[in-house]
Automatic annotation (TrEMBL):
Domain ABC transporter stretches: 3-236
Species per Swiss-Prot/TrEMBL record: Moorella mulderi DSM 14980
Family: Belongs to the ABC transporter superfamily.
Pfam families: ABC_tran
EC number from the UniProt entry: 3.6.3.34
Protein's UniProt name: Iron(3+)-hydroxamate import ATP-binding protein FhuC
Amino acid sequence: MILSVDGVEFSYSSRTVLRDIKFEVNRGEFFAILGNNGAGKSTLLKCLNRILKPETGTILIEKEDLFALSPREVARRLGYVAQRYESARFTVFDAVLLGRKPHIKWGTTARDLEIVRNVLSILGLEEFSLRYLDELSGGELQKVVIARALAQEPRVLLLDEPTSNLDLKNQFEVLTIVKKAARERNIAVVVVMHDLNLALRFADKFLLLKNRTVFACGGMEIMTPENIAGVYGVRVAVERLADIPVVVPL
């Protein structure tokens, strides 16, 4: 277990957004956070990244209190890909190199440059390394943002709806890269998702949120028609197509 969340609660003014959130994530896992709009998914991810501080409960990363770590140590352990980002006037190479900032003390080293080149290669971005971010397509830009997070060499990678503005081809490419990173780098990947079928195809474990608290948490065994209907309010069937689970509204 690399990430542990126990009894986390958070409110905006007097409005409770998260209540008694509990779950654990292991190394190498692709962990999907699911639920209707307003269920608290993005707020939970911001708590995991220390953008927001829970009122009660604990968040442990590698058995250490997330909120007791220095900002530099948090950046070394956590990579975060937000739902929205600005495409500043950086080249792709320089943007990914920013991911090395938590590790740089006196200046960029040969190892930093090698890590960036390796990540660019893994994501198929080598030919774009000298292009500017504002010259890229949405899919290319999303890959750059993920590359920057991977360049941090995090133990946990957090992503907030990473495929929301992508076409089908880029959705599969991005999630395949993320899943492969979890396996090959032995890191935990925590992803807020809306698309149940993408979640079923790529995730190992699922957290279902309803009314700002945990409805169910576990593997494929919790992704039943009854649980999905209980969270989303829609009758569904869960079928298998080419041995891949698919949710079909009824």
